[in-house]
Amino acid sequence: MTKRKHQHFAENATFPHFFQPGFELLQSGFPLKGKWRSDFFKNDNPVVIELGCGKGEFTTGLAARYPGKNFIGIDLKGARMWRGARTSFDAGMPNVAFVRTHIELIEFVFSQDEVDEIWITFPDPFPEKPRTKKRLTSPQFLNRFRKVAGRRAVVHLKTDNTPFFEFSLGIIEEQNLDLLFHTFDVDKNPGSDDVVSIRTFYEEMFREKGERIKYLRFNLFPSGKSDS
Ligand SMILES: C[S@@+](CC[C@H](N)C(=O)[O-])C[C@H]1O[C@@H](n2cnc3c(N)ncnc32)[C@H](O)[C@@H]1O
Questions:
Q1: What is the pLDDT of residue 227?
Q2: I need a labelling partner for 42 at 20 to 30 A (CA). Which of 49, 94, 161, 193 fits?
Q3: Is the CB of 178 under 6 A from ligand 1?
Q4: In this structure, what are the phi and psi dihedrals at residue 164, rounded to the nearest 5 degrees?
Q5: Which of the following is catalytic: 39, 124, 178, 185?
């Protein structure tokens, strides 16, 4: 590990809004599960999570824009997350937190109905066929999200990857979910200002390569069905 990375890991451990619960703690009962609003944010505002947040540009960017919502970035890579944690700490942002964990474990981090909105920004597309269940918009992941989200939850996806985007559109159709908006090029048709005004590290990389940025949003639960 480089010295810089080591420093960032050490700093992460000092941030009051940076959590890295081990699997044992998650299994035995993460103290903030079901209590993010009351015990951490100390308000009753909506909770928005970003999955695979990397450096947390979306988490911090949206948090600055929406002080009336709470934002939590989730990723495995602490060195990347440090950037967002440092920025939000220095800015004294009360509505930001980060959790370093596997997305597969979110049901241990949040309780049912605790999450109002989910952002997925430039996830790994896992192009090989046998790995489709690893894609964040696969039925397996959508079921994990349903264990923590309220029934009105909306999922946003931004990606450069056309096959992954089409795969996601296919799942939305297959599951009979409401597709609220989609575009194959946010520069032509952004859908909302948030989509184009905040750019992540990976987005900048893909834009430099000339990739078009795609975006969609959909209801996580089928309309008219119960989430039990
Ligand atoms: C391609 S990067 C995108 C990062 C950021 N969203 C961006 O746009 O710059 C994908 C991120 O997802 C994280 N990731 C991938 N699989 C994960 C998992 N199962 N649990 C937690 N994080 C994961 C990686 O560590 C990485 O930071």
A1: 46
A2: 193
A3: no
A4: -65, -40
A5: 124
Residue 117, H or E segment: strand 115-121
Verify whether ligand 1 is closer than 6 Å to residue 50 (CB atom): no
Contact 178, 219 (CB under 8 A): yes
Q: Running DSSP on this structure, what letter comes out for residue 107?
A: H
**1: which 2 tokens?**
């590990």
Residue 176, SS3 per DSSP: coil
Query: Among residues 185, 131, 121, 132, which one has the least CA distance to residue 156?
Result: 121
Pairing of strands 70-75, 47-51: parallel
CB 198 within 8 A of CB 57: yes
Q: Across the strands, what pairs with 127? A: none
Whole-prediction pTM: 0.96
Coil, strand, or helix at residue 215?
strand
Most distant pair of Cα atoms in the chain: their distance: 54
Report the C-alpha gap between 33 and 73 in whole angstroms: 15
DSSP 50-92: EET-TT-HHHHHHHHH-TTSEEEEEES-HHHHHHHHHHHHHTT
Q: At what angle do helices 3-12 and 78-90 cross, to 10 degrees?
A: 60
Can 124 be counted among the known catalytic residues?
yes
Tokens of 41: 């944010």
